[in-house]
Amino acid sequence: MAWEKQKQAAYAAKVREPVNLIATKEFRCGNLLVPVFNVDPQFLATLETPWRQSVIMNLLGRSIITFKFLYTKIEQLWKPTAGFDVLDLGFDYFLVKFDGKEDFDNALGRGP
Questions:
Q1: Helix H or strand E segment including 32
Q2: Residue-wise burial string across 39-54, b where 16 or more C-beta atoms lie within 10 A, e elsewhere
Q3: According to the lineage, what is the superkingdom (predicted)?
Q4: CA-CA 20 to 30 A from 36: which of 59, 93, 100, 106?
Q5: Average pLDDT of the chain, as a whole number
Q6: Is the backbone of residue 28 left (phi > 0), alpha (psi -120 to 50) or beta?
């Protein structure tokens, strides 16, 4: 019985209070088919925080490129001091997320 109460307390701690993410709902020029949603800026900031040091890449002129080739090419070109992750988004787009701010700035400033 005691472990059930602990489990329920742990679950209750994880459950968040519902938040209205959309502050107001409007329609552009009064057209009901074109809604405009104003989202809380603090919520947008929490969404973008993990992706601040990320770059979306599309390799022009290369129709088929392997994940491993891109990973090694990034290591050779930018020589990141901290780690980085590569995610294949599909349609020849890749997301590169750098762990270090210096590496991110280097990729934006010196990167091809």
A1: none
A2: eeeeeeeeeeeeeebb
A3: Eukaryota
A4: 93
A5: 79
A6: beta
Which residue has 């709902």 as its token pair? Answer: 25
Sequence spans of domains, the chain = 2-47, 52-110
> What whole-number distance in Å separates Cα of residue 7 and Cα of residue 17?
19
Between 77 and 18, whose confidence is greater?
Answer: 77
Radius of gyration of the chain (CA): 22
Instruction: Assign 17 to helix, strand or coil.
Output: coil
Complete edge-to-edge strand list for the sheet that includes strand 93-98: 54-58, 93-98, 84-90
When pLDDT is averaged across residues 25-35 and rounded to a whole number, the result is: 75
Sign of the torsion angle spanned by Cα atoms 20, 37, 95, 49: negative
What's the Cα-to-Cα distance from 2 to each of 7, 8, 14, 57, 69, rounded to whole Å? 9, 10, 19, 53, 54
pLDDT tens, position by position, 38-77? 777 888 888 888 888 999 988 777 667 777 888 898 898 8
